[in-house]
């Protein structure tokens, strides 16, 4: 009789049998985690917006005005603004009217921020943000200027006031001393003559009006840029600095300091 083939040993998958079985199974690659589209789109979109802002303020209206157009503009608007005494709010804005024709274009706002020491990106974004937010509100009713040029008319700068502010400027752009002192009485806890970053945040929150999102953004941007540019080495924003912002003299001072530093470096 033919011998029966030896019976195969049945394993339970443990020890050597299990290792052999595992080796027989082809290795499967782990699927690569899907990359988030937002990780690529958001930075790219942000870069595109900043680039567009820079190009707009550098190449847009006000960057290189035609001499004849500039002369016509200055003859009408400048006489109505600079022929008399400026309100504190007009004086605050006038620094950015670089050619003193009564109209501030984004290119001039950019130039003004660069003059006080702000970087290229901050200056470009600030120009688009400020002129985009204030400009359309200040255009006179009988003026044919396109709102897409984002001009700010210094004469009507009070019409561009946003909500959720400190109230230091009244509805006509006049300075209100009581409101100014109130800022430091209520919020300057570490020092009576200066604000810390945390105290400044408390001021912004206290000024917020319900659902006034544009006002919140406007106040946040103004105060944070001021703090960034003017805080001292210990992180304090001093009372005299804030006062100089409201009458516009701070900008002139910062420009002179920057020019002095540049002159000193060249020597």
Automatic annotation (TrEMBL):
Keywords: Membrane, Transmembrane, Transmembrane helix. InterPro entries: Caleosin-related. The chain crosses the membrane at residues 37-59, 115-134. Belongs to the caleosin family. This is Peroxygenase 4. The keyword Transit peptide does not apply. It comes from the Eukaryota.
